Amino acid sequence: MKKHNFSAGPSILSPYTIEHTASGIRDLDSSGLSIMEISHRSKEFMAIMDETQQLFVELLDIPSGYSVLLLQGGASMQFCMVPYNLLQSKAAYLDTGSWANKAVKEAKFFGEVDVLASSKDTTYSYIPRDYTIPADADYFHITTNNTIYGTEIREDMDVPVNLVADMSSDIFSRPIDVSKYAIIYGGAQKNLAPAGVTFVIIKDAILGKVDRAIPTMLDYRTHIDKESMFNTPPVVPIYAALHTLRWYKEQGGVSGMYKLNVEKAGILYDEIERNSLFTSNIENVEDRSIMNVTFIMKEAYKEKEADFLTFATGRGMSGIKGHRSVGGFRASIYNAMPRSSVEALIDTMKDFEKSI
Ligand SMILES: *Cc1c(COP(=O)(O)O)cnc(C)c1O
After folding, report:
1. Which of 250, 277, 308 is the last residue before a domain boundary?
2. N or C: at which end does the chain have fewer Cβ atoms within 10 angstroms?
């Protein structure tokens, strides 16, 4: 049975990405060689790297003065690279989940960290809005989509300092105004490619303002100067990312994806509201993620949770168990998730309700 893949990450990729990547692994453009066994300095790979970066620029409408870096180390490496390169005296962070929290922890190695607000008190069930960003902070760090908790910040904020965003799980899900950000980063494994490549969109002019010495590999300037080719880049994930981006372009770019994402999330949240067994754990409708839809069983049906999981698994639903810190369920409906799979989940929820 073909599975409906609701995994939070690594997660679903489009059949287009998987087919084209597999083909290049066997034989890259009829060259008789695999993408895995050619030099990263070959003209074939250089063209792949160039087109991938170019598609970032085109799809996200990245203005001049920014660089697109394709690095390794995951979003978790960025938790340390950001403060290493930017934190001179003080940084401000918004604590909206455990990824945000991990970013805070790393920043503390480099200077004073001001956590402006946190929704930890309610297991991160909302996006805090009541805080003031200190004008003397070197930057303000946010996590736009909280993959574990199902909350999302979908507006490009106007802030008085450099804005840094972890967009690991919602990059390319909607149009963004890149000019409002100093850095946007993320791991690839949610909306782009298999794990192994990390994207960083960085405004060049923000660098060179800290006093400390920065090790070569952790200095953004190294990767800007060498166009992400200082050392061997993760060639296969980059090749896969290229196909995902080509596919996004075919689908009408990020505005096309956004339209589809709003529809998919809309019908699923509607069913969660309608169904007598389930409820959303995110009260504020505006805060609900269109990438990771979390929901729980109503108090009266709590003991049916395991039954629903078994029922849904039998219907081909994969990866809908909620994160252990939240419980309940989480349907990750990233860009590559077809509407038909979301509809299959909705039918499963309806049929389970009838069976009770
Ligand atoms: C998955 C995820 C991470 C961790 O990414 P790695 O590439 O595994 O380091 C960080 N932030 C967010 C928001 C995530 O969803």
Report:
1. 250
2. N
Strand locations in the chain, DSSP E? 4-5, 66-71, 90-95, 112-118, 139-143, 145-146, 151-152, 162-166, 183-187, 198-203, 278-280, 292-297, 317-318, 329-332
User: Measuring from atom 4 of ligand 1, which residue has the nearest CA?
Assistant: 75
Within a 13 Å sphere around the CA of 133, how many CA atoms are in the beta-carbon half? 20
Please tell me the predicted confidence (pLDDT) of residue 2: 81
Chain centroid, CA 324 distance in Å = 20
Best substitution site from 94, 105, 146, 147 to test ligand 1's pocket, by max atoms within 8 Å of Cβ? 147
pLDDT in tens, 194-244: 999 999 999 999 999 999 999 999 999 999 999 999 999 999 999 999 999
* Shared-domain flag, residues 237 and 292: no
Domain boundary (193, 217, 250) is at: 250
Range of the domain at 307: 252-355
Is the same domain home to 241 and 259?
A: no
Q: What is the mean pLDDT of the chain?
A: 97
Q: Which of 168, 192, 294 to mutate to test the pocket of ligand 1 (most atoms within 8 A of CB)?
A: 168
Pocket flag, ligand 1, residue 75 (CB < 6 Å):
yes
pLDDT one-digit tens code per residue, 154-182: 999 999 999 999 999 999 999 999 999 99
Catalytic residues: 99, 166, 190
pTM metric for this prediction: 0.98
Q: Are residues 175 and 267 in the same domain?
A: no
- Domains: count for the chain: 2
